[in-house]
Fold these 2 entries.
Entry 1:
Amino acid sequence: MSAPLGAFFFAMIKSPDWDRLSPVKNLSRKLFGAGRIEGIAGSSTTLRDGEQVNGISLEKIVALVILAGEVMLKNGAETSRVEQTMVHMARACGAAKVESFAIPTGVFVTVTDGAGNSLTTMRRVYNRTINLDRIAKVNELSRRLADHRLDYEAAQSLLQHIAKERSGFSLGPSVIASGVVGAGFAVLQDAGPGEAGFAFLAAALVRYIAHIVSRLHGVRFTFEFLGAMAAALTGVMVNWLWPQISRDIVIVGGIIPLVPGVAITNAISDVIAGDLLSGLSRGLEAALTSVAVAMGVVIVLAISV
């Protein structure tokens, strides 16, 4: 151990009064930079340079992390991931303490600086969808910020671009992808070429209905209900025209894009992580989605009997 380091740790052990260690603090900043200095008996202290750590105000830190949480929550991220991302980003900007809380309809965050000043804000989330691309981009931004490969200004600019950009696929590719999913699941049900083809059409029609309903900003679960009715009607009509085509296989393949798989997965993940409120609310949302799909199919089948 060099002489300066030996003197530094000797002073830490001998002196019980941290206020008398200003020279030691200055030495620690030169050796290690501002941050945490671990004590001998498991204790620690945190060195701060004022209310604006790294020159970033509380308002700027809160504006960055609340936008990140809002973007992730809007695009289907689980609440535990939203909370962790907000905490990591705020600490990367120099916050002394961060408390974050997220539920499916809103995010809350409190950021405290080294001087003990706190700022709390919340953001209400009205519309939610599934866009894993945006979630991945915010996660990558958070990692780059935490690794100091990105400064605050660049992170804020990039995050605003992610929030406003039009991501995802256009209508044509998404309709085709939905049809492929429906046809693939029909094949798993021992469907023949004809049944797989009509399942493709039913699932593609469901995706097109989703596109129309999203533009109309209708009531929640309207898309699932109308999509299930369209898939069931397709199966009934095809079976009426070609009796050799299985009605049930076409219907099952058509409603597969409506299954709330991500919502169920996130609900289970939130419950396991201890976020019972978010887990139960997401589970209820998935259950209501399933009920809407079932009602759409049952109504068409009841009328066609």
Note: Residues 17 and 196 are 78 Å apart (CA to CA).
Entry 2:
Amino acid sequence: MNVTEYLSILFVLVVLVSGIIMIMKVLKTNEGFADYKSEAGYKDQLAKVVALRDLRANGRQRMSQMLDFYESASTQQDPHEVLPSDQDSFVNFYTLGCRFAGYLGPFEKGYFDPQEAVTSALKMGCRTFVLEIDYNDECKHKTDENGRYFPQLVVRNDQGRRFYVTASNPDCQNSSSSIIQKTAKVLADNAFDNGSGPLIVILYVLRTPPYDSGSPKRTLDYFSNIAKAMNPLLNRSVDNITTGGKFSRQQQEALLLTNSIKDYDGRVIFMCNANTDDFRKASYDTDKDLDYIVNLRLTMGQTQLGATTKAAATPYGVLDTTQSYLSIPQDQITNTIEKSKLTYTVCFDKNPAVQPDAETVQKLTSTFGITCIPIQIWSDDANYLFEKPSGLFSKFGFVPKPKNLRFIKKPLMRAASAPVTMNAQGGELRVPITP
């Protein structure tokens, strides 16, 4: 073999090896879950979350046990404010929420793993899950409209920069590879132990696709793909309750909040911050219609978060920053408290990387009755909520608000029966008989 032949063969081998490497990279990117679980960083993070899960799950009890406790008389050993039946409305309970559902953390360069992240959060007591949803700008090269703007779970900082290991959450997804749907499936399979209470799913939309006159259905199709991803949970939607109200399309938000929390045991309540009204002028099947699925809309408070819009009428759901509530003037606090009694309020720190501290959470919950300030499950900074016996969620995932912050149902007024002395027939009216 001469030198020329040798170099030719060597060149061919180099080209083949390079091609194989490129193909493997493409396959890894498309598959998304190729080998990130073998990384030391993933293993360390999983171990940290499992350790926190085991610590926080110790002694945890279900909603049914919480109600038994708070509905019983207070004792010296277990002092508490008794919860009467006219104050057991859904809106009257703080709920332990988990932000970045399906994400193991850490915030920067962390890992999506819906199975481990969601089951760990449930064992910690989380009953509200915030799914942060956006499209990926890296997919705009796709020729099909659906692929360019396909919704997926994201972790972004306050500048919109992406902060996760791409291998655990592929850039360009579709219905068969949707991390949103995988997260919904894990919730459907694990969140409904008997007596565990309702599950609240908050669809927090960061952005909607830009309007294009050539693609008028672009935003609706984007929302529809979110709705499709919720399919594993739809059979447990509160809209399937035969009595108690009609909750599709946010029809009876006030009633949703004032019904007894017991009515929703084993059910899902869907909330969303995006305006989905345009579905009401379109034709989509109900299981693909996000407006139909959403039971309560979270509207803008003082600060806009994501795609949240201002309320057109009385808001029954509000999404705002912790900083906004901390800045409320003293002379407006009483009015804000009264409004909060019939409002499902959710607060995030304006910086997504920050876990609100104990002082902030204490002030917002005890002063304004903020319903949910979600945690990051991997953060040690949330440990104060689980400390025994004083942590707000040390035992239960739902906790009654203090009486001064509760909505109190008005008693039903019933017409009194007519006394028998009202007429000569002992109160019985007879039809005259004609001759």
Note: The domain at 36-409 is CATH 3.20.20.190 (TIM Barrel).
